[in-house]
Structures are given as structure tokens and as C-alpha cells.
Design a protein that fits this description.
heterodimer, A: about 130 residues, alpha+beta, N-terminal domain of TfIIb, 3 domains, 3-stranded antiparallel sheet, two-stranded antiparallel sheet, extended, B: about 525 residues, alpha/beta, Dimethylsulfoxide Reductase, domain 2, Rossmann fold, Barwin-like endoglucanases, 6-stranded mixed beta barrel, 5-stranded parallel sheet, 19 helices, 19 strands, about 30% helix, globular
């Protein structure tokens, strides 16, 4: 059994807790007792925050829409398509015809890279996220 | 937040406005309750009888969209009664005379007409806030999601500066951020006009710095579109491709019919997420992402605390961490992108972002995170901002006149509909609705309606009602409750079964482009 430190994925309080991992599966949470934010406490969402990651509805493979329906695809196929369509639109209509929505749910490093890709590779500053919503 | 969560424990007074704290930020809500129980005062401004109301020293229920008039009225009383912090105003601020002249027009009588708050109560609130030694203003989207959102925030900042309640422990202007990394997404340049650390994309020296670091030339110096602007551009056909990572605008944005049309009008939509959300269902390509427990990375909370989360388990199937997906795309796009782990990315952020300069994995691996600004390896981080001076030197008072909401109830659309979150669910429900306990506690959407209104309309609890705005309608079960005042309806945007954002107004604050989700005009009838 392992205890892995993490940060709650819900609101902006930033409560810290340990994920209890057994046989490669999260079996529960244990609030961090000394963290100055939550001092050993969690709300109902925090206590149950590990459950949705094990949902059978998780996306497990890239999907590409073909004739109106989603079809499973390989990563290479999906990423090649994303690159060719986005660069195609940029080349035909200019960088400002592309938009990029970052996420208030992913890490700092991931938001940084996404922003870098939009501004450096596509030269588009149409970069935003749901801070306004 | 200018200040920190731990400072709630030492505050003498809380000025909570536009925040249902116990529901949206439960662990901060409990700090406020604990503080009240040890003797701190709580002034609550909220039209609804939210749970904090039972702990409030004073609960004032202002009319929707009248916060600027309300706070101007409070400042006027503080100035008239000579309760403002003269040494602070003189030493640390500028523009006091303009503020004084403008708020003088907001006499208690005028404010009562606009806000519905009695002069005597306004007076009590003003005196209590001004006389407190350490007073914290706490707000959330109830302040910002208005066409006057920017004015609301400026006005609260004016109030804090007027009374010297900023730049000291347990004071300040404290917006509570609603998502675990909304602060970080902003800090990392997830906004149209800035790179990391709010460095502007139209500043030539900054552009040069990023071009050199990234090994590119020709970065676009023109700030881009906000999410609201992007939806409008997609609607008009000028925005043709959109890449959405971990967001669900087809539930969260106002006027969903408009959003649906905008997204359908795109030539190409990519959505990267952990579930097939309402938004992902419209995509041309869906990329499966790892969830928080399945990757390493840092998150910045509402008090600017950057904390490191470790990887606990593997993602399901072929799902990958967002950073791995973006890295793979960047390589295909010809960018140099040789990150072996997220720590490599953080080193790049450290080098390019003064406020994150000393926030390294090495330091985050022990202790409890670091609060920015933290410019170097030995800096301890910053518990509260504006200690000796404001970022720009003196703090400018920015007086704002009251402007009404975009939609005011009339004879046809005769109710104000407001939206928010509830304790047991979260945002668009993508995560919380897949948790059994949360679904058990809050399984369905409910529309709060005052008993007097309900009686007139023949509505009882659990009756299905139809609510309609100028943009759309929904059916929903009614909950008859005194939690809402007369002529006000409340529900949440968590449930796809009753999409309240079909009804909400996309009218925006002109500066922040935040839509007025906190109030639109609707009519309601019981379904037979």
C-alpha cells in the first residue's frame, strides 16, 4: 500500500491529501494533517475525489469523427490529423482563425506548454480558459 | 487573494460579498465559521439566505447587480463619519479627493433606493468594517459575474484602501478562486494578453525574451480573444479551428444555444478531456487525457500557493497526461520539445517567470508549497501582498459610478434568475456526478422559489416548472424556500437535465469580458 501526496481537483482552496494506492488502484484518501490549507480536514467532494477517475466512462483511446460518428484511432493518427487540420486552417486563414482554451483543471506545466504551443507554433494569442465562468 | 487562508484565523471581521463560501470553498467557509465562534464579526452581503447567514453578525440582502452603489454608500458613510484611515490614505494612496466627491452622491437614501438596504443597516456595516482592526474582504463570482464586474472589484479595492485594510496580515481583498488551478492557468499565461506571470504579449522586451527562450521569431504582439470573444468569432465564422483542453463550455458558458451554434460552425474542433463531455461530443477529434491522480504536476491555489502533486496510478487504456500529448504535438509542429518530465517544464517556467523564479520541484518536495511572488531559490514566498507599497507604488482610488444590470425584470420577464453552485456538486458535473455519494445527496436540479411567489403561481415543491428567458427555456423541479427573496429564482449549472445556461445572458463586463451569469430576467409557469 502506498500513500501518494496530491492536491484536490475541485475548488481553488488547494486542499492537500494522500491517495491510498493498493495494487495499482486508488482505494481512498487521507487528508494531510499538517498542511496549512486544510489542516487534516476535507469536504464531501474532497473525501470522494478519487471515485470519478475510476469511472467506466473514462476516455481510453483517441477518437476521430468519421461520417458523423466517432471511430477509435491510434495516437499517431489522431495527432497527425490535429496538426494537419490546425496548420491548414492557420495557413489558409491566418493564426487568428485559431483558438486555444487552456484548463483550470490541468497543472501549471501543462497550461504553460499549451500556451507556448498556441503562441509559438501557431502564432495565435487567442488563448483563454474558464476563469470568467 | 492578497492575503492567505491561515490569516482567516486572526481576522476580526469578514466582509463577505458574492461568495457562498461554505458551498463553494468549504474549507475556507469553515475557517470563517470558526473565527466567528471565537468572536470575529461577519458582515454578509447576499440576496440569498446562504448557510453563512446563520453565523452573520449582520446580513444585508442587496438587490441583484447593485454592489457598486452599496459599497460607494459604505465609503460615503466612512468618509462622512471621519472613520477612514487618514495616515494610510495620505501615505499610500492617490485620488482620494475624486473618490470623496464621487461617493458623496451615494447618500444612504440614494443607496436605499438602489439596493433596498435600509440606511441604518448600511451605517452599521460601514462603522463595523471601518472600525475593525483586521478586516478581510472575501468575494467570489457573485462580484465578478456582472456587466459591472470590474467596477465591483475596483470598488471593493477602494474600500479596503480607504480604511487601511490592505497590506497587513488578516486584511486585504480576497477573491476565492473556483477551480483547483484557475489561479495557475492565469499565472501560466492562459489569458489572451499575457505570457507567464502576467508579462504582456505586446511589450517588445518581453516578446524578445520569450522569442529567445523558445527559439522562435515573429511572436504575435497583439493580444488575442477571450473565450467570449472566441465564441462570437466562431459564430461569425472568423474563428475556424478551436482546441479545448479540459473545459466544457457547452455547459458552463452563458446562452448555450449561441455556444452550440458557434462550436458547430467551426471547421475543426479538438477536445482533450477525461470524459466525453457535452463539448467533446461535438468534436472532430477527442484526445483522452490522464486525470489528476495519474500524473505529476503543480497546482496554484486561491492564495497563490503552488503545490506539487505526485503520480499515484496509471491512466486508463491509452490515455496520456496532457503535457505528454502537447509535447507530442509540439514535436510534430517542429518545435524543440525535449521535456522528459514535468520538472523540466517547471525549470523553463522558473527561468521565464520572475514571480515563479524560486518555485522549484526540489523545494516543493518538502514542506507545503510556496506562495508567489517567490523570485529566487532562497525567497520564502509571499504570505500577503502590498506590505509596504502597491505594485505600482501608490494605490490609486478608482471610483466607479453605479450602472444597472443588463437585464432588469419587466412585465413579461418578471423574475431575476441567478445561478451558482451547491455543496455536493461541482461546476458542469463532469467529475462530481460520477461520485456516488455526491449523486445520492444532490441527484437532481432544483429551482429555488420564494413561498409567496410560489403561492401566487400555484407552484408547490417538486412541481415541474418551465422557466424562460429571451434566449431559451428549461423545465425543472421547484423547491419552495425562503432561501431566495421574492421575485428571485436560483438554480445551479451542474445538471445537463436542466441546462440553466440556455437561459443566461452573455452580456459581458466590457473590460474583463465576464458574462453576467448572476442575473437575467425570466418568466416562470407551472407545467400542467
Amino acid at each position: 500500500m502506498a500513500r501518494i501526496p496530491t492536491i484536490c481537483p475541485f475548488c481553488g482552496c488547494g486542499c492537500s491529501f494522500y491517495l491510498i494506492v493498493k495494487d495499482g488502484r486508488v482505494t481512498g484518501v487521507e487528508p494531510s494533517p499538517d498542511n496549512p490549507v486544510n489542516k487534516g480536514m476535507l469536504c464531501a467532494k474532497g473525501w470522494n475525489s478519487y471515485e470519478f477517475i475510476q469511472s467506466p466512462e473514462r476516455l481510453t483511446t483517441p477518437l476521430i469523427r468519421k461520417n458523423g460518428e466517432f471511430a477509435e484511432a491510434s495516437w499517431d493518427e489522431a495527432l497527425d490529423l490535429v496538426v494537419s487540420r490546425l496548420t491548414g486552417i492557420r495557413d489558409a486563414s491566418g493564426p487568428e482563425s485559431l483558438g486555444f482554451l487552456c484548463s483550470a483543471k490541468v497543472s501549471n506545466e501543462e497550461n504553460y506548454l499549451f500556451m507556448k504551443m498556441a503562441r509559438a507554433a501557431f502564432k495565435s494569442n487567442n488563448v483563454d480558459h474558464c476563469a470568467r465562468l | 487573494m492578497t492575503n492567505s487562508i491561515n490569516e482567516f484565523d486572526e481576522a476580526d471581521l469578514f466582509f463577505v460579498i458574492g461568495s457562498n463560501t461554505t458551498a463553494q470553498h468549504p474549507l475556507i467557509g469553515s475557517r470563517i465559521i470558526n473565527a466567528v465562534e471565537r468572536g470575529a464579526k461577519l458582515i454578509l452581503f447576499d440576496p440569498r439566505e446562504i448557510p453563512l447567514a446563520q453565523f452573520a453578525t449582520l446580513h444585508l440582502k442587496q438587490t441583484f447587480g447593485t454592489d457598486v452603489a452599496l459599497v460607494n454608500g459604505i465609503m460615503n458613510i466612512i468618509i462622512q463619519e471621519d472613520l477612514y484611515d487618514k495616515p494610510y490614505v495620505q501615505a499610500r494612496t492617490e485620488g482620494f479627493e475624486e473618490l470623496k466627491t464621487m461617493v458623496a452622491r451615494y447618500t444612504p437614501k440614494v443607496v436605499e433606493q438602489i439596493t433596498g438596504i435600509r440606511s441604518s443597516e448600511l451605517y452599521r456595516a460601514a462603522v463595523m468594517y471601518a472600525q475593525a482592526d483586521k478586516a478581510m474582504i472575501v468575494y467570489a463570482m457573485g462580484i465578478t459575474q456582472h456587466v459591472t464586474g470590474t467596477d465591483n472589484v475596483k470598488t471593493l479595492a477602494n474600500l479596503a484602501m480607504l480604511t487601511g485594510h490592505v497590506g497587513r496580515p488578516s486584511t486585504g481583498v480576497n477573491p476565492l478562486r473556483g477551480q483547483n488551478n484557475v489561479q495557475g492557468a492565469c499565472d501560466m499565461g492562459g489569458l489572451p494578453g499575457v505570457f507567464t506571470g502576467y508579462q504582456r504579449v505586446n511589450d517588445p522586451a518581453t516578446v524578445k525574451k520569450f522569442e529567445d527562450a523558445w527559439g522562435v521569431s515573429g511572436l504575435n504582439p497583439k493580444p488575442g480573444l477571450t473565450i467570449t470573444g472566441m465564441m462570437n468569432a466562431a459564430h461569425q465564422g472568423t474563428l475556424k479551428g478551436l482546441y479545448i483542453m479540459g473545459e466544457n463550455p457547452l455547459m458552463s458558458d452563458p446562452d448555450l444555444t449561441h455556444v452550440e451554434h458557434a462550436l458547430s460552425n467551426l471547421d475543426f474542433l479538438v477536445v482533450q478531456d477525461i470524459f466525453l463531455t457535452e463539448t467533446a461530443a461535438l468534436a472532430d477529434v477527442v484526445l483522452p487525457a490522464a486525470a489528476f491522480a495519474e500524473k505529476q504536476g503543480t497546482y496554484s491555489n486561491t492564495e497563490r500557493r503552488v503545490q506539487l502533486a505526485q503520480c499515484a496510478v496509471s491512466p486508463p487504456g491509452q490515455a496520456k497526461a496532457d503535457w505528454e500529448i502537447i509535447t507530442a504535438l509540439c514535436r510534430r509542429l517542429g518545435m524543440k520539445c525535449d521535456y522528459a518530465c514535468t520538472e523540466d517544464i517547471m525549470r523553463e517556467i522558473n527561468a521565464l517567470t520572475p514571480s515563479y523564479g524560486g518555485i522549484t520541484y526540489e523545494r516543493l518536495s518538502s514542506g507545503y508549497g510556496l506562495q508567489w511572488p517567490c523570485p529566487n531559490d532562497t525567497h520564502p514566498g509571499t504570505v500577503f501582498l502590498h506590505r509596504d507599497q502597491f505594485t505600482k507604488g501608490k494605490g490609486s482610488f478608482l471610483p466607479c459610478e453605479f450602472k444597472p444590470a443588463a437585464e432588469i425584470p419587466d412585465d413579461e420577464y418578471d423574475f431575476t434568475l441567478t445561478t451558482g453552485r451547491i455543496y455536493y456538486q461541482y461546476h458542469t458535473g463532469t467529475m462530481s456526478r460520477r461520485v456516488d455519494l455526491l449523486e445520492r445527496e444532490a441527484p437532481e436540479p432544483l429551482l429555488e422559489i420564494n413561498p409567496e411567489d410560489a403561492k401566487k403561481l400555484g407552484i408547490r415543491s417538486n412541481d415541474v416548472v418551465e422557466v424562460e428567458s429571451r434566449r431559451g427555456s428549461m423545465r425543472i423541479k421547484a423547491e419552495v424556500t425562503t432561501r431566495v427573496p421574492k421575485r428571485v429564482l436560483f438554480t445551479t449549472f451542474h445538471f445537463k437535465e436542466s441546462q440553466v445556461n440556455r437561459l443566461t445572458n452573455s452580456a459581458c463586463d466590457p473590460v474583463a469580458e465576464i458574462p453576467e451569469l448572476k442575473g437575467c430576467s425570466v418568466k416562470i409557469r407551472r407545467c400542467s
